[in-house]
Amino acid sequence: MQPLRSSQRLAQRMLSCSQGRISAYRSQYRQYTQLSNSPLDNPAAKASAIEGAASDTPSAQETSPSNGATHKVMTIRRPLGARKAYYMLTGGVRIGTRLFEPVLLRDACTCSMCVDPSSTQKNFQTTDIPPNIDIKSQKTLSNGDVRIKWKNDLPGFGADHVSVFSGEFLHPSSDYTSVDIPKPLLKARAWNAEMIKEDIHFLNYEDYMASDETFNRALSELVKNGILIVQGVPNSEQSVEDVAGRFGNIRDTFYGKTWDVRSVPDATNVAYTSRYLGLHMDLLYMANPPGFQLLHCLKNSAQGGSSLFADALFAARGLSPEDIHTLSQATIAYQYKNAGEHYYYQHPVIESAKRSTFGLPSILNINYSPPFQAPYLKHSAQAVSLLKRNSALRNFAERVENPANVFEYKMQEGDCVIFNNRRLLHGRTAFSAVGGERWLKGTYVDSDVVESRVRVFRERFGTEKLQRDERDKSEEVSSTA
Amino acid sequence: MQPLRSSQRLAQRMLSCSQGRISAYRSQYRQYTQLSNSPLDNPAAKASAIEGAASDTPSAQETSPSNGATHKVMTIRRPLGARKAYYMLTGGVRIGTRLFEPVLLRDACTCSMCVDPSSTQKNFQTTDIPPNIDIKSQKTLSNGDVRIKWKNDLPGFGADHVSVFSGEFLHPSSDYTSVDIPKPLLKARAWNAEMIKEDIHFLNYEDYMASDETFNRALSELVKNGILIVQGVPNSEQSVEDVAGRFGNIRDTFYGKTWDVRSVPDATNVAYTSRYLGLHMDLLYMANPPGFQLLHCLKNSAQGGSSLFADALFAARGLSPEDIHTLSQATIAYQYKNAGEHYYYQHPVIESAKRSTFGLPSILNINYSPPFQAPYLKHSAQAVSLLKRNSALRNFAERVENPANVFEYKMQEGDCVIFNNRRLLHGRTAFSAVGGERWLKGTYVDSDVVESRVRVFRERFGTEKLQRDERDKSEEVSSTA
C-alpha cells in the first residue's frame, strides 16, 4: 500500500528539463498543429498548412514601453461612494482620426498565423508581445477594413505578417469583442406573479424538438423570464433527458443524471402526504450550482401539489442600493452532509459583475436557499456586520416570499418546466396523495451549456431585443413594488 | 409554432395566490417532511415524527434590536493599504465568561425541530429569527455541553424548544462551523520541478480502487501537490471512468464523458507528427472549468511526447503583492467558438478569497491558458490599466514557464495522471509517431465532487497535517525563486 516515492521510479524515464528548452518550444508555437479530438481541438480539425511558416525573422528585443502612448489618471465617481482610478488613453497609434493601443490591437489579430483556423487556438502569447511594438504602415481598404504591418512584431512573425481589422472592430463603440459578455440577468425582465401569468410561454414538445425557430424562442424566454413550459412531452422516463438534450450535455450530480420527485398513494400512512416545500434553489452547497433545472410531470393526480416560483431578480432589483451592496458582500454558507457526501460552499446572496452597466448593478446570479443553510459563521469571519446583513436579508426575503411575487402553477401530465436555478426560487404547496399520485422527473443543465447555445442561435437568428415598453414596465414595477 | 400566451391556458388551472398564504405555508415549515429521492432529500430518507409538533405558541412580535448587544466600529489595516470597517462585539449574551450574539446562536441550533434529522434540511429561516431573541435560561451539563432555553423564540417554537451546544462549538477558536472552509490551495505545497520530482506519488491501481487508505492518500496528494500518478491501470477504454469514479460522478462536457488524445502512425503524412503543445489549462472558457483532469495512457510507443506540468500556485506565490493584486483584479477572456459551440468567459488570473488568512492571500483558483485567450477587451472595459496588467502577467508567465518550474514526465502505458486543472498548467513536448502510437484517454471531475470526498475521508481518517518543515521549505523557495 505504501506508495513509492518518485525518485525510486523516475530515474530511468525522466527527461532532463534543461534551461532554454521552453523558449525553444515556444518558437514552435506558430507551427504546431493538434490533430486529436481532445478538448484542445476542433473535433473536426484537419491538418492545414499555416501561412508564412517559411519566413521567420529573428526575435525582436524587448525594451521598456516607448510606443508614444501617454496616460493620465481620471477619477470616476462610482455607485455607493466607492472611487476607482481608471486610465484614460490620451496617446497611442493613430488610425484615421482615432487613437489605439498597439499592444491591444496586436493581441486581437486573428490572421491564420495568429489563430489556428481549424482549432481556433491562439498561436502566440499576449506576454510575448514586445511592449515597444508599433505600426509600420497602415492602409484603409475599399471595404473599410484597415490593413496593418508591424514594427517590432512578436518573435517569429516576419515582415509578411499583416493584420486586418474590420471597420466594425475599430468603431469607437466596439470593445474589441463580438461576444455578448455574460450578463444574462441584465437582459432579463424581472417579474412578479401578475406579470408572469400574462407572459409565461407554453411551447409544444414536437415543435420544441424539431423546429430551431421554436427552440430559439425557448432560449429567448429563458433569458427574459427565466422560465417556460414545454407541453405534450411523452410520458416516458427518458423524456426529460430528450428535452434537456436540446441545450447540450446534462449536468450529472450525485443524485444521478436524472432523479425522481415521487409519492406513492397509501392512504393508511400519513407520511405519504407531502407537505408544503419552502421556496429554495437547488445545490447551492456547490461552488457551481446548476444554472437550469427541468422538471417533467409524469403523474399529477394528487390533490394540491402546485409548483411555486419566485423571481429573486425582481426582489433584488427593488432593494435599496445599500441592501444590494450588503448582500453582495455578505456570504451565506450552504451544506449537504448526508448519505456519504459532504458538500459545503459560501455564496454571496447577490453575485454582481465588478462593474455596473448604465448605473444598474450587473447582477449575474442570486444565491438564496433557506432550507440548505449551514450555520452562520461567527460575525468575525464575515465582512459585513450581523445587524446590517440580517436587516438586508430580511428585506430581501420579504420581497421574495411576498405572495404577490409568487407564481403558482399546477403541473399537468406532459408538462416540462424549464427554469433558471440561479435566478428563480421554486417550491411546492402541500398535497394529498390519497387516491392520486404525483411523480416528477428532473435533471439539470449548466449555465455554460445554455449560454453557448444562446450565442450560437443568436448568431443564426439575430438578437431578440426586449421591447422598450416591456423594459420600462419592468423597471417601473421593480422600483415601486 | 406560435406559442400560446399563458392567459389563454392558465385560467382553468391557476390557483389564486391570496395574500397571507405564504405566511400560512411558512407556519408549516417545521412540520413538513420530504419523502422523494429528489435533490432536496436524503436518498435514504424516511418519514419521521418531529418533536414538539403539538406545542406551538403564538408568534413573537418583531421589535427593533434590543438584546443588549452594543457594537463599536474598529478600523483594521489590510494588505495593500485597503481599509475595511469591522464590527467588534462588545456586548451580547453571556455564557460562562464569554459573550455571544443570540441571533447567531439561535441560527446554529441543530435540534430535530430545527434541522430535519433524515433530510438534514433546515426547518426555519434565518430571517424569521426575531431580532429581540434572548436567552431565558442556560445550564452547563456534566459533559461540558450548554443547554439553552429561549425568550422571544421563532414563531412556532414553544417553551419546550431547547438548544444544546457543545463546548467545542462555544470555544473561542470556533467559527461556528465544523467544516474546513474551502481554501484548498492554502493547504497546498507549491512546487518547482526539483521539488515535485522528489515528491510525486505513484499509487498502485488495485490499491487505489480497493483500499480506502490508499484512496485517502490520493486525496491528500491532490490537496498538497495537485498531481499524482496511478500505475498499472488496465488497458481498457473504460478504465479512466473507473479511476474517476472513485471520486464520484464525472463532469460531462461537449467533448463527451471521456475523450481521446490520439495519433495514428502514418509516416507519409507530416500532419500525423504532433508538435509541442504549450502549457495551458482546459475549458477556461466556461464559468466553471473542471477542477480535476484525468489522463490514462493507453499507448505511448511514439518518440517524444512527454507530458509537461507547471504549478501556477508556485508562480503566483512568488509574485509581488502588487502583481498579485493586479492579477486578482484583471480579467482575461477565454473563448471557444467552433463546431457548433460558442463558449466565452472572463476570469481573473488569480481568484482569491475575500479575506486573507495569516497574511497570505487566500488563493482559491488560478486561471491562465494562453492558447484559448479571446481578444483582450478595450482598456476602458477593464478595471486595471493595460501597462500594469501586462507587466504583472509577464512576471507571472515567466515564472510559470521557467524550465526550473516545469515538471516533465513521459507517461507509460498503464499510467493515469490525475491533476488539479485550476492550479496546474499542462502541455506536451513534440513527438514523432513514425513506428509508434500515442493514445491518451481523458475525463474530468468537478472540484465540488473531489472536495466532498476529501471532507468525508477526513472525517473518517482525520486530517493529514502538512509537515512543518515541508511548509517552511515551500515558502522559502516560493519567496526566493
Structure in words:
With 481 residues, chain A is α+β, with helices and mostly antiparallel strands. Chain A has two domains: 123 residues, NE0471 N-terminal domain-like (2-Layer Sandwich), CATH 3.30.2020.30; 297 residues, Clavaminate synthase-like (Double-stranded beta-helix), CATH 3.60.130. Helices cover 24% and strands 25% of the residues of chain A. Chain A has 13 helices and 24 strands. In chain A, strand 4 and strand 5 form a beta hairpin. In chain A, helix 7 crosses helix 12 and helix 10 crosses helix 11. The longest helix of chain A has 16 residues. Chain A is elongated and about 80 Å long. At the A-B interface, strand 1, helix 1, helix 2, strand 3 and helix 3 of A face strand 1, helix 1, helix 2, strand 3 and helix 3 of B. Strand 1 of chain A pairs antiparallel with strand 9 of chain B, so a sheet runs across the interface. Chains A, B: This is Clavaminate synthase-like protein. Chains A, B: Belongs to the gamma-BBH/TMLD family. Chains A, B: It holds the Pfam family GBBH-like_N. Chains A, B: GO terms for molecular function: 2-oxoglutarate-dependent dioxygenase activity; metal ion binding.
Q: How would you sum up this structure in a few lines?
A:
Two copies of one chain form a homodimer. The first copy, chain A, has 481 residues and is an alpha+beta fold.
How is the topology of this model organized?
The structure is a homodimer of 481-residue chains.
Chain A lengths: L3 E2 H5 L10 H7 L43 E7 L5 E7 L3 E3 L2 E3 L1 H6 L26 E7 L5 E6 L10 E4 L1 H4 L22 H7 L1 E4 H6 L1 H13 L2 E5 L7 H7 L12 E6 L13 E4 L11 E9 L2 E2 L2 E5 H6 L3 H9 L1 E8 L2 E8 L1 E3 L10 E4 L19 H16 L4 E4 L6 E5 L3 E5 L2 E2 L5 E8 L1 H15 L6 H13 L1
Keywords (chains A, B): Dioxygenase, Iron, Metal-binding, Oxidoreductase
Cofactor (chains A, B): Fe(2+)
Family (chains A, B): Belongs to the gamma-BBH/TMLD family.
